[in-house]
Design goal:
With 130 residues, the protein is α/β, with parallel strands linked by helices. Helices cover 31% and strands 23% of the residues. The N and C termini lie far apart (29 Å).
Length: 130
């Protein structure tokens, strides 16, 4: 059985598409996340995005205690949650699903650049954990 393709789009100077098979994040995503981690800042995953394993984090020296999966909001969309997360200034990177409109994605990319927070768009997780 073939695994589905998972596409990762990262905002930054070169908006590249990173591909991986299966429903787990790619090595390229984790390599970029490990470069973006800063002291006293977090890597946040929305509940709609893929969820990393401790093994994946450890293999890229990403401290698991600096990674948080945000709980889905009963009142806010993923876009609104991502906007608040970036504006908090506490995240060095944010991983969200790519189900948002192009306009919303562009807004989040611009906002993340302003707040020096890298943002990654990934195919949505089929199961929400919260």
């Amino acid at each position: 059985m073939l695994s589905p393709q998972v596409s990762f789009n990262h905002s930054g100077p070169a908006n590249t598409s990173l591909l991986n098979t299966g429903m787990i994040p790619s090595d390229k995503l984790f390599a970029q996340l490990s470069e973006s981690i800063r002291n006293n800042q977090w890597i946040w995953f929305t509940s709609q995005s893929v969820r990393p394993s401790v093994t994946q984090l450890a293999s890229f020296r990403i401290p698991a205690n600096q990674v948080i999966q945000l709980k889905a909001s009963a009142h806010l969309s993923e876009f609104e949650v991502a906007t608040k997360a970036i504006k908090s200034g506490n995240a060095s990177a944010l991983v969200v699903s790519n189900t948002m409109t192009q306009t919303q994605q562009q807004y989040l990319e611009d906002l993340s650049n302003t707040y020096q927070c890298k943002i990654f768009f990934v195919k949505p997780n089929k199961r929400c954990y919260h």
